Amino acid sequence: MFSYKINDELELAVPRLTDGEALYDLIDRNRDNLSYYLPWVDHVHDVQAETDAIRRGLVRFAEGKALDLYIWYHGRLAGKVSLNSIDAMYSEADIGYFLGKEFRGLGIMTLATRAIIDIAFEEYGLHRIMLQCAVDNLPSNNVAKRLGMRFEGCHKGRLILRDGYHDSNEYAVLAEEWPDVQEKY
User: Which of 49, 72, 144, 177 matches a 20 to 30 Å C-alpha distance to 24?
Assistant: First the structure.
């Protein structure tokens, strides 16, 4: 299976069906802190549901519509980073991700997101990558800023979270900007 080694501690890999249990355990351990920004977490109830989600993701990967990569830190599943909704016509995709609480504050998500942007531009030949997050999700806003992504605006009432509609910030970077942006950040 496809994998992308970031450094000696961190690797991204296309999930295997056998990763369903590890994914379920990660989500279940982090249910309280993930579910506010990721409402789908409330619908995760067993390992089979996650195995089915992996299967659906692999189909979308084979169709060229998405790329889910699991984040492995010292051999432990730490989270997931994805190119969601790859749009071949417009040559763009949006990034989604989550990270277990015990893995936060280590720079993992910034490194994983940088890597998937590299993959998007170098392997998929995409032109534009977007990252959208709730205005009050400071860690996600900070990932975009650390990567030098351009703030493109605030969308009123764009996201529906557990307690209703929320504003979202959108960040983006173009393939031709990425090398220069990386030199600065």
Answer: 144
- Predicted confidence (pLDDT) per residue in 106-161, tens digit: 999 999 999 999 999 999 999 999 999 999 999 999 999 999 999 999 999 999 98
- Predicted structure pTM score: 0.93
Q: Are 69 and 14 in contact (CB under 8 A)?
A: yes
Distance separating alpha carbons of residues 71 and 79, to the nearest angstrom: 5
**Strand 164-174 relative to strand 10-13: parallel, antiparallel, unpaired?**
unpaired
C-alpha 29/C-alpha 101 separation (Å) is: 9
Residue whose token pair is 């990932």: 143
E-strand ranges in the chain read 3-5, 10-13, 67-73, 76-87, 92-99, 128-134, 150-161, 164-174
Sign of the torsion angle spanned by Cα atoms 19, 24, 30, 31: positive
Contacts of 34 (CB under 8 A, 6+ apart): 27, 41, 98
